[in-house]
Amino acid sequence: MKLRPINSISVKLGTLLFTIFFILIISIVSILYMFFVNFYTQDTIDELIQRSQAYAEVLSNHYDEALINHAGLIESTSSKMILVVNNNGDILAASEKIKQLPADYLNEVITHGYEGHGPTIASDWKNEDFFVTESYIKHDNETIGKVLMFSPTDLVRQVVTFLQKISIFIGIIALIISAFLIYITSNKVVQPLLKIMRVTKLLSEGNHNWKLNTKGSDEIAVLSHSINQMSNKIQNYEQQRTQLFVDISHELRTPLTYFKGYVEILLNGEAKSEEDKVKYLTLLYKQSGRLQRLIQDLFDLSTMEQKGFTLQETQISLETVMINALDLIGPSIEQKEIELHVQLSPFPIYILGDEYRLQQVIINLLENAKKYSSAGGVIKVLTYKDNNNCIIEVIDYGIGIPKKDIHRIWERLYRVDKSRSRETGGSGLGLTICKRIIELHGGQIIVESEEGKGSTFKIILPILEGMKGGD
Q1: Rounded CA gap, 184 and 190, in Å?
Q2: Would you give the DSSP letter of residue 466?
Q3: Number of Cα atoms under 13 Å in the Cβ half of residue 254
Q4: What region holds the Histidine kinase domain (predicted)?
Q5: Which CATH class is domain 314-417+424-462?
């Protein structure tokens, strides 16, 4: 197995799991240790006190040699041991195991009790070999001896040693498990992450040909799928940006070429008459207007696509928006000898919107309708209410839009008929701007068209609550 650097994710994860697992086990062992030691020690001492008190009470009532010897015989069959002494410290009865203990130890225990230390003489299992308790034998309220009970402490030490060994064993197991987890995470998590890191680095360098494996449904697969999607979007964006630069360059080159040609004619004196000079100056003026519209449309679109862009929304009358827009565009439509039929809703309709931007949409749609309608044609404008929405329709009976192009008309600088669009001076950004403005108003714009029969652009906007007018 290839070793991983200490700062790798697999090592960090394995170390974290080992630490958590080890702390958890140590905590459990410590709790068991404390519970067992405290419980067992106290329970043993309580039992010794009860037994010593019981024997002392019996001997206080019936103090004779036979009964004393009988007490020693009873405890000889249990793990507990008994020692009965008189006031002089002489041993009257004792378990067989007691007799095997050193005399110095027994003298110390017997003397310790007479110094008045209470019923418990020895309870330190770490440093003592026995738990020891005592109870006094009394006759006519005078102490005539005492009963001492013993219980070995080696069982506690054995359990503590066992728990210590268990802790060491569990620590080793935790270390092995952590090493195994490092290996698993290295293959299942770290390797895919390293591949993701390499691919994202390639993406940052502009190489979008690499794709990640998206098999499975875990977080790595989801992340890989998201990165693949991001790569595709970046690739599409790069292609669109390149195409946009090409299109903008072409759009700028056309009027500038005209500019250069017309200016050269004027500078070279080829325009002899005043009529020719006016003609070329008029053409220069038209091309400058086209260039100005292109730059303004690019600026508007760029502004609206910024995150911080907001509409200047107020409560406005739809009728006012329509009348102002028609006043601006109407004369140019009439100049082309196209009939403009307007049918506005008879009921007042109010919306929350940016009046300038909405007028911009209406003018753009009417400009398009005018461009693609012939002299003597008809353009219709309708407004009406549909439930909680208001509808604006701009209908023309011009050349229409082919089915293959209808879904692309909202793209930047896209033209159905490029040569005709350039002749009519369009920037190719008008419909993109219209769609963006309507979406910012919480509405939608849709188109229905049939080639050779015309197009209908329908705008749907929400009516301002509380200002819905009549039906």
Answers
A1: 9
A2: T
A3: 20
A4: 247-465
A5: alpha beta
Assign 124 to helix, strand or coil: coil
Q: What is the CATH number of domain 208-309?
A: 1.10.287.130
Q: Hey, which bits of 275-318 come out as E strands?
A: 314-317
Q: Tell me the C-alpha distance between 81 and 47, whole Å.
A: 12
* All residues at 6 or more sequence positions from 226 whose CB lies less than 8 Å from its CB, including other chains: none
Q: What is the CA radius of gyration of the chain?
A: 50
Per-residue pLDDT of the chain (471 residues; tens, 9 = 90+): 444 455 566 666 667 777 777 777 777 777 777 777 778 788 888 888 888 888 888 888 888 888 878 777 777 667 788 889 888 888 888 888 888 888 888 888 887 754 445 677 777 888 888 888 888 888 888 888 889 999 888 888 887 788 778 777 877 887 787 777 767 766 666 677 777 777 778 777 777 666 776 676 677 777 777 878 887 777 777 776 777 677 677 667 767 777 788 788 888 888 778 888 888 788 888 778 777 777 777 777 777 777 667 888 899 999 999 999 999 888 889 889 999 999 999 999 999 999 989 998 999 899 989 988 988 899 999 999 998 899 999 999 999 988 888 888 888 767 666 554 444 555 567 888 899 899 999 999 999 999 989 999 999 999 987 655 544
Q: Across the chain, which distance is largest between two alpha carbons, in Å?
A: 158
Distance, in Å, from the CA atom of 276 to the CA atom of 202, rounded to the nearest integer, reads 59
Q: Can you tell me the distance from the alpha carbon of 64 to that of 256, in angstroms, rounded to the nearest whole number?
A: 135
Residues facing residue 111 across a β-bridge: none
Residue type, 203: L
CATH class of segment(s) 9-158 = alpha beta
Place of tokens 């790798």: 8
Ordered by start, the domain boundaries in the chain are: 9-158, 208-309, 314-417+424-462
CA atoms in the 13 A half-sphere facing the CB of 385: 19
Residue whose tokens read 């005709």: 420
Q: Which position has the token pair 């049918």?
A: 343
* pTM (whole model) above 0.70: no
Amino acid identity for residue 144 in this structure: I
> What is the CB-side half-sphere exposure of residue 143 using CA atoms within 13 A?
15
Place of tokens 């090493």: 179
Residue with tokens 């004792």, as numbered in its chain: 94
Q: How many helices (H) and strands (E) does the chain have?
A: 13, 12
Six token digits for residue 466: 């509380």
